[in-house]
Design a protein that fits this description.
Shape: elongated
Largest sheet: 8 strands, antiparallel
Oligomer: single chain
Helix content: 10-25%
Order of helices and strands: EHEEEEEHEEEEEEEEHEEE
Strand content: 35-45%
Radius of gyration: 21 Å
Number of strands: 17
Number of helices: 3
Length: 259
């Protein structure tokens, strides 16, 4: 089991840092899944028990100049690691003016993601700052716990098929509603590839879910992905599902509805 990667391009490094900073705001611990083509940052708290879930997918070719990995076996060419994203975020903060950043899986008394930051120097030799981030290796038998969440068909906060959405904030003293109009209703394609039909639904009918405002603020305040498109799907009275889309990143975030 091996992994090493290298970033040279400054724009790619800055973008990768913003993604990690966003994830660090959303999850205290998460799972890093490594494949030949992609990286995934996964949070799998049980939505049914009031927890949030996250699925962030990155194409490694859009970030890394070099990327090599060997999984646990030829037929299971993947690696699953448990880590604290804040530790990775702190390591990358030292890399703002770096010439290169190398990340590799090492074993230093315990499994680590070692981040080696090459900084410019006035002398002929560069300065290397190294961060060893402890990680846990997740065994193969548990991998199925970290698959992309399956989500039921959506009723497309409060929204309808006319492109109207209402965000309501209610307290004992005040109730405030913000109205959004002219929003798009993109078709939702299910896991089997079929497109969900909405022809039998009343376009005026509202789907709604009451959620913890703190969990919504955590997403809005923490995101640094700068998405080109944002989607909000609502399973009425069950789940609010956000998707932030960028050319190189997709981030999904699930917030359970309150009873």
């Amino acid at each position: 089991m091996r992994f090493r990667a290298k970033i040279v391009d400054v724009a790619c490094l800055n973008h990768f840092t913003r993604v990690i900073n966003t994830i660090a705001k959303l999850a205290k611990t998460c799972t890093l899944r490594l494949t030949v083509d992609k990286l995934y940052f996964i949070l799998t708290d049980k939505v049914a028990n009031g927890g949030v879930s996250m699925w962030c997918e990155l194409s490694q070719g859009n970030f890394f100049d070099e990327f090599q990995m060997e999984g646990v076996a030829a037929e299971h060419n993947e690696i699953y690691l448990e880590l604290t994203p804040e530790n990775l975020s702190r390591a990358l903060k030292t890399a703002q003016n770096a010439k290169t950043v190398k990340i590799k899986l090492t074993n230093k008394h315990c499994p680590c993601l070692t981040v080696a930051v090459e900084l410019p120097s006035l002398s002929t030799s560069s300065r290397i700052v190294t961060h060893d981030i402890p990680v846990g290796v997740i065994p193969r038998r548990l991998w199925n716990d970290f698959r992309e969440p399956s989500v039921p068909d959506f009723d497309v906060l409060e929204a309808n098929l006319n492109g109207e959405m209402n965000l309501k904030i209610e307290t004992d003293l005040v109730s405030v509603t913000t109205h959004f109009k002219g929003l798009g209703n993109p078709p939702w394609v299910s896991e089997n590839g079929s497109q969900s039909s909405t022809q039998d639904r009343d376009p005026e009918s509202m789907a709604e879910a009451r959620i913890d405002i703190r969990k919504l603020l955590q997403l809005l305040a923490g995101q640094q992905v700068n998405p080109t498109k944002a989607l909000c799907n609502i399973v009425s009275k069950r789940i609010v599902h956000f998707i932030l889309l960028h050319e190189e990143v997709s981030l999904q975030y699930f917030i359970p509805a309150l009873a």
